[in-house]
Fold these 2 entries.
Entry 1:
Amino acid sequence: MDGLTTALLTFPLFLCVLSTAAVGAAVPPVYVFGDSTADVGTNNYLPGTSAKADFPHNGIDFPHRRPTGRFSNGYNGADFIDTSSKALTSPPVAPASSILPEAQSLLSMQLKQFAIVSSNISARVGVESADKLLSRSIFVISTGANDMIAFFARFGSVNTTQRDEFVATLISNYEDHITTLYKLGARKFAIVGVPKIGYCPSQRSVNPNGDCIKDLNVYASKFNKATEALMRKLCTTNERMKYSIGSTYQIVSSIMENPHKLGICSIPHKLTSKLAVEAFYTWSAPFVTPITFKELVEDDR
Ligand SMILES: *[C@@H]1O[C@H](CO)[C@@H](O)[C@H](O)[C@H]1NC(C)=O
Ligand SMILES: *[C@@H]1O[C@H](CO)[C@@H](O)[C@H](O)[C@H]1NC(C)=O
């Protein structure tokens, strides 16, 4: 599963943050820590990564119909996240990551890089302003899927004890990462849950009969529930923490169960991504809990 994993925060992130810090704009900066589902083509600029999407049919639904580096036929979720306006457009970042250090790319490496960014901001605008800036920044994290896919590729179907242990390990590592970000000044967390990854074309293609891999959907569901519990717990010990969790799992389920109700005839990634981000902004439970991304952005307490 090396092909799905790659790391590194990219240079545009630094630019985004520093320029916003410099002008003191009211628009909160957005940091995206994500996996390939949130990559807007950053991998094109990373030397030595095997995670590539620079070949057809990736990009087929763009006007020029060429691959962009997104692991998608068109725009993905990261393209539609933008807290500055109602027009949903792309932030300039989308690194790829996984939670566990076994995988080729590490969320922990991204956090080390973010620690540098954070100290760079302090050096430039002073500790107090840097704290203020980070406390109103939105930290989008979309991760976990690569870990599950890698685990399944390695061990196949395992019994429930082993499965639960694996999910617990993921969550424990996730807790460390989120706590690290909090210590670095992050306060507002926009968590994107793991979708029904058993339906990913890449996964179905490795299943001899082409069907979805149900086990992976179970992992995703368990992980999402555990993430909710984790965030509730973290809020009791980190009192300035705020969060919203968007459920791509629920979005994908609703689309698959009743696409016409949502005005969708087939399920192109681009439409699904746009719908998901809109849902996280303005819909309600079970699609986004306990508050919406919009409320998270606007919460200035
Ligand atoms: C950020 O900090 C690192 C380490 O302290 C330093 O090497 C780098 O030049 C700084 N970058 C900027 C843009 O100030
Ligand atoms: C699950 O599988 C592991 C490894 O094969 C085994 O040691 C363990 O006893 C199994 N647990 C259950 C409840 O079947």
Entry 2:
Amino acid sequence: MPESKRYDIIIAGAGLSGLSLAWHLVKENYTGQILLIDNSFAPNNHKTWCFWGKKDHPFADIAHRTWKNSHFSALDFSSELSLKEHLYFCVKESDYKETILRTLQKAPNVDLLEESILDFSSNSSKAALITKDSNTYLADYIFQSIFMPSHYDPSARKYPLIQHFLGIEIKTDEKVFDKKTFTLMDVDSDFNDGFAFMYVLPFKKNRALVEYTIFSANPLIKKHYKKKIRSYLEEKYGLTKENYSIKRKEYGEIPMDDRPHTPLYSSRIMNLGTVGGFTKPSTGYTFSRVHKYSKKCAQALVKGVNPPTPTASSYRFRYYDLLLLRVLATNVPDSRKIFRSLFKNSPIDRIFKFLSEETNFLEDLMVLASCYYPPFLRALTVHPPLITQFDKDYLAPSKGKELKEDYFEDFEHVPNSSDEDSSQDAEEGSEKIVQKDRLNETVS
Ligand SMILES: Cc1cc2nc3c(=O)[nH]c(=O)nc-3n(C[C@H](O)[C@H](O)[C@H](O)COP(=O)(O)OP(=O)(O)OC[C@H]3O[C@@H](n4cnc5c(N)ncnc54)[C@H](O)[C@@H]3O)c2cc1C
């Protein structure tokens, strides 16, 4: 028999952004009833999340590895760049999930449910989620990181680039890696694939994740990334296939186009993470942006005010991103020159601050002035400053989205989460809620 239950908040999707919001809500002592729902809470290890931050970063304790030194290389420039104000962190997906799920398990107001979500619906006062088993869950707000909203129009993208990469985590027979220095970019000199580079995260002297990353419109066949990595390992570290074993693979396609920002799925349903446009278009980094919003949102909900609509970057940063995307999409040699000049002439901490969109205008100018500028001047003529507009229509809630009122037929009969009846409902439907013991199994 399909069930229907009412919560204050539903978080649909327990990946990076869903777990982030749940974690911040618990940390901020939010007392409303929360449902976190995902296909599976099993702690996969398909991703490693890297980001820069201060040494007291909230996830510093679970970092698999941190670095203070980086290596950058492009064309004739090759240098070790030392981080003074930041650390570069790497968090394993499994550690992130395990840590947050353990915190959530202890929170009396959080239900964790493994079910597959079919769709969402909302009206001006309530939001509903329907699962493939035809169960309906209602809440004041749903935060979802699963579906691209139907009003998202991919044809509106100006430069539909993706950051696509394949990485292999290898264990070598010999100690060949400098574990204190990660390679942020070793820019490829081949023109064929698009703007491409190697990214190396050395975890130990004999263990590293080596990734071939490309910024271009289309992914390549997997064999090609592997071939590139094999040649790089041979050329750079003198490693042949016989000298290492592959422990893990990681493949990703991250949108880095100037995608219209889509903060709302429909009224009372907020988009989080990748589908919410949280990815920084010019870099693909998402982790820190997700956490920044989650913290702000949790604080608002604790105060009893409406959650803030996830905002796009300011005009200034969207504009800089657009200019760079144009160069990346149209001119690979110039792209290389831009990255070379940027890392040659600007301190890496300032670059990270700029990419975090925390610089003031003067600092922006210092970063921009350090870059090889002719391609930017050409891009300026195509997208003149101040005249260039960004997707303001997408900020309108429910644009083109039909509300599925039929899910709400019995809405008024559904008790509030704080009503006594609802706790009885919860008991009756308890087999649907992932039990703490079960979760321990999946988490460990
Ligand atoms: C391999 C890889 C490496 C990356 N590395 C970095 C990095 O180093 N730094 C960085 O900042 N960004 C990185 N990113 C980009 C970005 O941070 C991640 O893609 C991130 O996981 C996006 O978070 P999300 O919450 O939007 O989606 P996800 O983390 O993918 O979460 C979505 C969740 O929804 C669930 N789900 C999907 N469909 C359903 C359904 N129908 N019903 C129920 N549940 C469902 C999924 O199981 C999943 O748990 C990487 C991306 C990839 C792919």
